[in-house]
Amino acid sequence: MRIALVLFNGVTFLDFVGFYDVIFRLNQFDSSQGTTWDICGLTEEVTDELGMTVKVNVIRPDLSQYDFVFLPGGKGTRKLIHDKDFMDWIKTAESVEYKVSVCTGSLLWGAAGFLKNKKATTHPNVYGLLEPYCLEVVKSRIVKDGKVITAGGVATSIDLGVYVIELFAGTEAADLVKKQIDYPYSAVGIVEVEAGT
Fold first, then answer.
1. Which residues are catalytic?
2. How many domains is the chain partitioned into structurally?
3. Residue 32: which CATH number?
4. Alpha carbons 152 and 131: distance in angstroms, whole number
5. Beta strand pairing status for 142-145 and 148-151?
6. Quick one: how many helices (H) and strands (E) in the chain?
7. What is the mean pLDDT of residues 105-130?
8. How many Å apart are CA 105 and CA 152, to the nearest integer?
9. Residue 194 — very low, low, confident or very high, per pLDDT cuts 50/70/90?
10. What mean pLDDT is predicted for residues 22-33?
11. Containing domain of residue 138, as a range?
12. E strands within the chain?
């Protein structure tokens, strides 16, 4: 499985690194060995909303070459939904099997048109901003509608990572990862939308 992790100016870094630190462990398990990822952006460096600068390793790839694209959130998303260049790039993910986001990353999927017939979630403070883009905003921590998975606010990035480990490597793998990162919590509020609903 090839994963694209998208970064941009104004990202909330915990949205990204909370998820990345967990899913980095996919290669420990037989069923998800061989997973690779690229940290992608439109520029060589991006600056998070607190001023930390991070380098990306692939600039503006065609996202259709990936199996899984992850969008974090952050205050930068509010501008990016109106940035034609950035949104044109996100739209190259149209054929990607798994579209995944945490926090306001779902606004980017929505603005790209990928949530039109989907139930989705985002940070509780911005449910209203997501409403125009999706079928229904579900006020929950993780929402899986088909192969679109959206998650709530910042710390949910860790829950989302554990959820993805369980999805691809199973419950025992997810439990092992939680022990590795000393994460004694179980996510509450996971909504899986049945096909056709």
1. 103
2. 1
3. 3.40.50.880
4. 14
5. antiparallel
6. 7, 12
7. 97
8. 10
9. confident
10. 96
11. 2-193
12. 2-6, 36-41, 45-47, 53-55, 58-59, 68-71, 98-102, 119-120, 136-137, 142-145, 148-151, 190-193
Q: Which residue has the tokens 């022990």?
A: 179
Between the alpha carbon of residue 143 and those of residues 30, 35, 179, the distances in Å are: 26, 23, 24
**Please, what is the angle between helix 156-169 and helix 13-23, to 10°?**
30
Q: Of 94, 42, 51, 91, which is closest to residue 74 (Cα–Cα)?
A: 51
pLDDT in tens, 151-168: 999 999 999 999 999 999
The string of pLDDT tens digits covering residues 53-82 is: 999 999 999 999 999 999 999 999 999 999
Q: What are phi and psi of 163, to 5 degrees?
A: -60, -40
- Tracing tokens 């390793």 back to the chain, one arrives at 57
